[in-house]
Design brief:
This protein is α/β, with parallel strands linked by helices. Helices cover 26% and strands 32% of the residues. It has a domain of 127 residues: Rossmann fold, CATH 3.40.50. It is built from six helices and ten strands, in the order ααβαβαββαββββαββ. The strands form two sheets. It has a seven-stranded mixed beta sheet. The protein has a three-stranded antiparallel beta sheet with strand order 6-7-8, with no helix packed on it. A hairpin with a 5-residue loop joins strand 7 and strand 8.
Length: 219
């Protein structure tokens, strides 16, 4: 196994976000179809705010990220649109937040950049801070993705030259990762992309999980 200093891949994002393009706001339809306006959301690994920013119109949302560069860019975009959202510098493996304090968590394109132990730490943190019945919205690379491969550090996990970790999931792995949650939906999203005239596959695993409410009355 590759000898990788724990958390060193977190600091790699500071340099990475200097040149990572924002890419514009992303669709938030799945969140809006599952949550009521005014509910409290954590954007866990918010980057430059492409999901956080559009959701500020209807939700009490805050964001956390390991990169100060990304958070500064998010803050600037919020200010330009006269929007507001609390932002924190933190890894999703150790969130400085009170237990049972959020109705939902967005984790889009973040878990794929963690090692195995860190992914389980993050899932445990999500369980801790969600209210009973709270939702996790998940998206990450799947194993059929064209970018699969590189310098292997763990099973289906690779280290790139920029110091960033890339892990590729199966649906079964995602289900096991959120084993203490109820699965609402899970799907493989696969599409073809052409590069220099040749076809390649992109693959994402998308899921929604619910934290069981132990006090709910049985049906």
């Amino acid at each position: 196994m590759h000898s990788l200093h724990r958390r060193s891949h977190f600091s790699a994002w500071e340099k990475e976000h200097v040149h990572v393009d924002w890419g514009g706001s992303r669709s938030t339809s799945e969140v809006r179809s599952n949550l009521r306006p005014g509910q409290r959301i954590l954007d866990a690994g918010c980057g430059k705010g492409r999901y956080l920013l559009p959701l500020t119109d209807s939700y009490d949302i805050c964001g956390t990220d390991v990169s100060l560069t990304a958070l500064h860019a998010t803050k600037e975009r919020l200010n330009r649109r006269d929007r507001n959202a609390p932002l924190m510098t933190s890894s999703i493996t150790h969130l400085p937040l009170a237990g049972r304090s959020f109705d939902a968590i967005l984790c889009y394109g973040v878990m794929q950049h963690l090692l195995s132990e860190e992914r389980h730490e993050a899932a445990a943190e999500f369980e801790r801070i969600l209210t009973p019945g709270g939702l996790v919205f998940f998206e990450a690379f799947g194993i059929q993705d064209m970018r699969y491969g590189g310098e292997k550090v763990e099973q289906d996990t690779f280290l790139r030259r920029n110091g960033v970790i890339y892990h590729y999931f199966t649906k079964e792995e995602v289900i096991n990762l959120f084993g203490n949650f109820e699965m609402v939906t899970i799907r493989d999203t696969i599409w073809e992309k052409r590069f220099r005239g040749r076809p390649y596959l992109r693959h994402m695993v998308n899921a929604v999980f619910r934290l069981p409410d132990q006090n709910a009355m049985p049906r």
